[in-house]
Amino acid sequence: MTMLEIKNLHAEIENEGREILRGLDLTVKPGEVHAIMGPNGAGKSTLSHVLAGKPGYRVTDGSATLDGVDILEMDPALRAANGVFLAFQYPVEIPGVANMTFLKAALNAQRKARGEGEISTPDFMRLVRAEAGKLKISQDMLKRPVNVGFSGGEKKRNEILQMAILQPKLCILDETDSGLDIDALKVVSEGVNALRAPDRAFIVITHYQRLLDHIRPDVVHVLSKGRIVKTGGPELALELEAKGYADFVDAA
Amino acid sequence: MNLVVTPDRRRTKAEEALESAFRRIDAELPDLEREAAFARFAAQGLPHRRVEAYHFTDLRSMLASAPEPVGRPSPEAARDALGADVFAAVNPARAVFVDGWFVAALSDLTGLGDGVSVSTLAAALTAGETIDGLGARVAPGTAAETDPLVSLVCAFFSDGLVVRIADGAALARPLEIRHVATGTAASVFVRHFVEVGAGASATILESHESPEGSVVHAHTLVEASIGVKAAVTWVDRQRESHDGARFSTLAVAIGDHAKLDHTVATLGAKIARTQIFATLGAHADLATRGATLAKGRTHADATLVVEHTGPGATSRELYKSAVDDEATSVFQGRITVHKAAQQTDGRMGAHAVLLSDRAEAKAKPELEIFADDVACAHGATVAEIDETLKFYLMSRGIPADETERLLIHAFLGEVTDAIGDEAIRTAIEGEIDGWIDARGKTA
Question: Which residue of A has its CA nearest to B414?
């Protein structure tokens, strides 16, 4: 059974017409953790943006389906309701929107889109309190506007909190380790590991092997020049760490 | 009667209507310096784009006509005119004006506390007071005195409120001055006087509303003085018909060490102009914030003239507008720091978010500084809804329209969050959210 199936995906930056993804193929099954590694400019972030539906990219060829349904035609909100979640490399600050308000609006919007009823306020509060506690997110951070004044580590933990509350099918982590010290990395990784489940898959995009010591992948891919150029087991990440990307870049 | 009229210019239809209306009411109402006021207006006529203060709000071309003033409504018509009770949860005392006339039967001026007197202008004048003798007056020779909209109210006013709060007294409950309209096409002119004594405190609410579809040109002038060390909170909610006009002026003198915290929300009117002329004494503290929501083909203007006359005063001006469809928002703000006003701390910001391709926002913040030891700053921005923020919210499953609602609410939240009283804040937020929710449903 396949959860995410990407076939021959081509995408360019809308205003520049510059092609970034050049025939990318990727298959992810439920329960799996896939790591995507690669040098700067390989297209790692573009892949995550295209899957989440960020404006500014144009898909020129290929397809991406989640449980057999084409997601590329959906707007970002509908993709989220269908189970796609992107943990941002740079989570956005939203002045004037309290974190709690935001979490509740997101959860209820997704439930509504799936034809489920709204969560009751007490149930929501219990859920948030429990998940926030695991991620060491204070009440103050929940009351403050989304990500405003949060440290880099707090922002990343807040991303994982959203993931824990929204319970997506497919979690895409875009360089979640960037800007994290070792303690924050541990908290974030534990949060992610706690969410690993047979019916959930992860795509972990990272530059460094370090994150993969904490979030153990099942499959490791090397992305170069917009294509997957090599796929292997966890040992591939170690090989990359030792040798660098040079061999693969040339191969592509 | 001789009116000074620029001889070589053909008057507009609106100007002609105002003049003939003035001739009629001048014969009916007590004089009260009306002629001098009308002469001040007539000398210039309706302001136009070459008049700097009206550069972006050219009333000469925008006002196609001026409806006639109307008389006192019947008690039934007055009662029917009461619209939504926006400040119900605040439970304020109330002075209700219908079509510009005070209606005692709809008002409740009880429980205002010791040292507080509230009467109508008519009652005050009957009791032998003179306009000149009323303490709170626009200072002669100021920008307010020569303003054409101020002159019009001084020429035409039908009624008004005289509020006096004695030294050291406190208004025991908020006072709402509520203005509603029967819906009859009319020009309405109301003139209020508010005098807050030294060390006194008060919360005053203004509410302005006219039934949707009605053509009411509603003019209000508030002349206020805030005594030494007094503290006043003022919240003004304006929601006129989208076929009507709202012209509001607050001319306020803020005494030494006195404080005024002012918020205005403007949500309606085809043409709205809110003017604030504020003079700050030594160590006075003024905060004024505005939320303007304009849609359809409306035009909303907020114009501030803030004069720091004494040392050590602080002023904060924050005006935000959300502009949809083909609407226009205008902000003009001038902070003048007089030579004596050393250690002035002034900061002014005007920010607009454009919700459609054809919406427009114009901002002209100005500083005029004659003292050498001051900290003043101003800034203005015009932007669309931030795509990055929108994508972030959508990526969590929040649909596009709800995303915009959240972001507009958040944008204006900086204005409403600063309202200290929760019931008042909730009332104003409710108005704003109602506007946001109705977006796109009606033009």
Answer: A96
Selected for mutation to probe chain A from B391, B403, B406, B411 (highest A CB count within 10 Å) is: B391
| Rg value, chain B, Cα | 21
| CB hemisphere CA count around B94 (13 angstroms) | 22
d(CA A167, CA A190): 16
Nearest to B402 among A75, A88, A105 (CB): A105
Q: Indicate the residue type of B210.
A: S
Q: Are A89 and A50 in contact (CB under 8 A)?
A: no
* Residue B104 CB partners (closer than 8 Å, separation 6+): none
Give the residue on A whose Cα is nearest the Cα of B391. Answer: A54
Q: Using a CB-CB distance cutoff of 8 angstroms, which residues of chain A are in contact with residue B394? A: 53, 75-77, 80
Q: Which residue of B has its CA nearest to A82?
A: B397
B370 touches chain A (CB under 8 A): no
Q: How many CB atoms lie within 10 A of CB B381?
A: 12
Q: Is B414 on the interface with A (CB under 8 A)?
A: yes
The one-digit pLDDT tens for each residue of chain B (443 residues) are: 455 555 567 899 999 999 999 999 888 887 788 999 999 999 999 999 999 999 999 999 999 999 999 999 999 999 999 988 999 999 999 999 999 999 999 999 999 999 999 999 988 888 888 887 777 777 777 788 899 999 999 999 989 999 999 999 999 999 999 999 999 999 999 999 999 999 999 999 999 999 999 999 999 999 999 999 999 999 999 999 999 999 999 999 999 999 999 999 999 999 999 999 999 999 999 999 999 999 999 999 999 999 999 999 999 999 999 999 999 999 999 999 999 999 999 999 999 999 999 999 999 999 999 999 999 999 999 999 999 999 999 999 999 999 999 999 999 999 999 999 999 999 999 999 999 999 866 44
| Cβ contact A44:A36 at 8 Å | yes
Cross-strand bridge partners of residue A12:
A19, A58
Cβ atoms of B158 and B221 within 8 Å: the answer is no
Measured distance CA(A194)–CA(A171) in Å, rounded: 13
B400 CB neighbours in chain A (<8 A) are 75, 77
What is the model's pTM? 0.91
Q: How far apart are CA B253 and CA B162, in angstroms?
A: 16
